[in-house]
Amino acid sequence: MRLLIAIFAVLSLAGAALAQAEFDTKAKFAVLMDYESGTVIFQKNADAALEPASMAKLMTLAVVFNEIRAGRVSLDDEFFVSEHAWRTGGAASGGSTMFAELNSQIRVEDLVRSVIIQSGNDASIVLAEGIAGSESTFALMMNELAGEIGLEQSYFTNPVGLPDPDMYSSARDLAELGRYLIREFPEYYHYFSEPSMEWNGINQANRNSLVEMGIGVDGLKTGHTEAAGYGSVTSTDRGDRRLIAVVHGLTSMRERTEEARKLLTWGARAFERFTPYAEGQIVAYADVYGGVSPNVGLVGQGEIALYLPRGSRQCLSATVNYEAPLLPPVRQGDRIAELRVFCNDQLVQAAPLYAVESVGQGDLIRRATDALKQLALGWL
After folding, report:
1. Dihedral of the CA atoms 133, 136, 137, 138 (nearest 10)?
2. Quick check: 314 and 338 in contact, CB under 8 A?
3. Is 193 known to be catalytic?
4. Which of 4, 112, 161, 265 can bridge 324 by disulfide, Cβ–Cβ 3.0-4.6 Å?
């Protein structure tokens, strides 16, 4: 099997590159992603390994929500606060905590709210132990789900985000993780915008201070360690467009808040929506070897939308990738290929492409002719 790449558009990216050049951030790592299309409209060291700190708790929440959806856990279940959770994540640890009492039992919903609002380390460990029996087993679940989501540059070793040389992620993966949570679990997303939470007589404000700034931010998570600095994954829904921003490697909470705010504000104002392919419009054709038809049209799942600098209509360079030879039968709706869009030689968006119609097996003459073509291509 070999990879066949079809170039369908190669035009100037000067407009998009110029727009990015007009913005910069103090963050060492940054990504700004359009939620609907997955387009990355700003990136800085987007694929470099970083220490996720408490932003790793987003992966913890993804596992918890999946367990709830599967019916293996309920929001009303109560989990036991072990001595390990109490010592490692409680007040004595010096980190963020919900101040859970040793040997108490806490509802899953309250633990989830604590992880989101208070960044409770103890709450994260209690959830991990309650679901998987131990942090290490829960970490296996985190990595399994990360693979299913498509987080290719992440590896998790604990549910808290405590420093570990073996744990890493990237700004792009954290943005994709935020996008996954918003898309897959809208029924739980309201927790991220709660302004505060009280537990054990102690009230704590949402650690994502942008939630209270009135600029439309309604999630997701902050993080900090001495080595990694300050970071956040934030999202805003302004008008008909949602953006997800990741900044990391900053020197203070104030700097983190300001850089995230600037990035989201710039993204909301500097770009306009561009739809190169309407719903059902054929993007490219894939050859079908030995099929009753020599090729099959490829379409997106709905329209394919991009965001470009305001006043610009430059097309992006892109490839359509699929493994050949593509053999019949091909069924309508089969995922056949992937559209990859580039900006300045950097991948900014990948979208699956599907067969627009079914293609059955051709007659003997067709199969023989295509076999000869494939043999000739192999010689080339």
Report:
1. 80
2. no
3. no
4. 4
Q: Where are the domains of the chain?
A: 2-14+275-379, 51-227
> Of the listed 37, 44, 57, 170, which one is catalytic?
57
Instruction: Tell me the CATH architecture of domain 2-14+275-379.
Output: Sandwich (2.60)
Summarised one tens digit per residue, pLDDT across range 330-373 is: 899 999 998 887 766 666 667 889 999 998 875 554 444 544 44
Identify the active-site residue in 37, 54, 114, 235. 54
pLDDT cut 70: percent of the chain above it: 84
| Cβ neighbours for 348, distance < 8 A, ≥ 6 positions apart | 39, 40, 41, 43, 316, 341, 342
Specify the DSSP element, H or E, that contains 88: helix 83-89
Which of 114, 165, 157, 103 has its CA nearest to residue 135? 157
Residue 312 CB neighbour total at 10 angstroms: 16
Asked if 54 is an active-site residue, the reply is: yes
| Residue 173 predicted with pLDDT over 80 | yes
How many Å apart are CA 356 and CA 330, to the nearest integer?
10
As a whole number of Å, the end-to-end CA separation of the chain is 15
Sign of CA dihedral 299, 300, 301, 302: negative
pLDDT tens for each residue of 202-260 = 999 999 999 988 889 999 999 999 999 999 999 998 767 899 999 999 999 999 999 99
Q: How many CB atoms lie within 10 A of CB 129?
A: 20
Catalytic residue among 37, 96, 119, 232: 119
In the 8-state DSSP scheme, what is residue 207? Answer: S
Q: Across the strands, what pairs with 42?
A: 32
Name the pTM for this structure. 0.80
Dihedral (CA of 104, 203, 97, 141) sign: positive
Say whether 134 is catalytic.
no
Cis peptide before 220 (omega within 30 of 0): yes
Q: What is the CA radius of gyration of the chain?
A: 24
Which residues carry a binding-site annotation for substrate? Answer: 221
